[in-house]
């Protein structure tokens, strides 16, 4: 007896070629042809129209994990003793010249004017370079010129690096100490100012 002929339109797929449930993806997967992320039920890529063969799909375990390097923390700008000594030597030389050719009153006025001009320049330059907290740099230059001005000269050379000591958040105790120091400074200036 011969086997009954099968209808021509219906062909059975061999069991080894039929995708099993184990081969079917259960999670979103990239298209083997173009890399477009597809849903687990997708059988044709929506981007390149490539027919999805479950055998071509890489398992998540086969994908190599791409290690993302941690962001590098920039080294903060530290106080430069070299710049400080250069500025200090220049200021001492200028002070000695002023004392030789001017009276003490005019000498103090010139040095005070230099500090004011330096603080104005620091405010303008820090704003142009878009450094954080330019007002702090300018105020520090005005009140403590010999320390803050050399530090700013070092800071402006490295605008991408932070300076937490000047530009970081300020505690209330630090603000209170600064206000007390400022009040004492003005008291000393007005008390010991020479009579007119």
Layout of SSEs?
Blueprint: E1 29-30, E2 37-38, H1 81-101, H2 104-128, H3 134-143, H4 145-157, H5 164-167, H6 172-191
Antiparallel strand pairs: 1-2
What would your notes on this structure say?
With 196 residues, the protein is an all-alpha fold. Among the domains are: 34 residues, no CATH class; 83 residues, no CATH class. The protein has a two-stranded antiparallel ribbon. The longest helix is centred in the middle third of the chain and has 25 residues.
Overall geometry? rod-shaped
Number of helices: 6
Between the first and last Cα atoms, what is the distance in angstroms?
136 Å
Order of helices and strands: EEHHHHHH
On the 0-100 scale, what is the average pLDDT?
78
Cα radius of gyration in angstroms: 37 Å
Give the gist of this structure.
The protein is an all-alpha fold and about 200 residues long.
What distinguishing features does this structure have?
two-stranded antiparallel sheet, rod-shaped, mainly alpha, 196 residues, 2 strands, single chain, 6 helices
């Amino acid at each position: 007896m011969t086997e009954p002929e099968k209808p021509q339109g219906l062909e059975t797929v061999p069991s080894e070629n039929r995708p099993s449930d184990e081969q079917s993806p259960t999670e979103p997967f990239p298209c083997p042809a173009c890399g477009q992320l597809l849903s687990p039920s997708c059988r044709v890529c929506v981007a390149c129209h490539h027919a999805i063969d479950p055998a071509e799909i890489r398992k998540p375990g086969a994908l190599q994990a791409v290690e993302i390097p941690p962001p590098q923390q920039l080294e903060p700008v530290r106080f430069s003793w070299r710049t400080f000594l250069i500025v200090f030597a220049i200021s001492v030389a200028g002070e000695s010249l002023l004392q030789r050719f001017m009276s003490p009153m005019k000498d103090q006025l010139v040095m005070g004017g230099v500090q004011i001009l330096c603080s104005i320049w620091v405010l303008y330059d820090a704003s142009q370079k878009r450094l954080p907290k330019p007002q702090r740099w300018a105020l520090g230059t005005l009140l403590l010129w010999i320390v803050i001005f050399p530090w700013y000269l070092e800071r402006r050379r490295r605008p991408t690096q932070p300076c937490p000591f000047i530009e970081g958040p300020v505690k209330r105790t630090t603000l209170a100490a600064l206000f007390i120091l400022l009040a004492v400074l003005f008291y000393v200036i007005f008390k010991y100012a020479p009579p007119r």
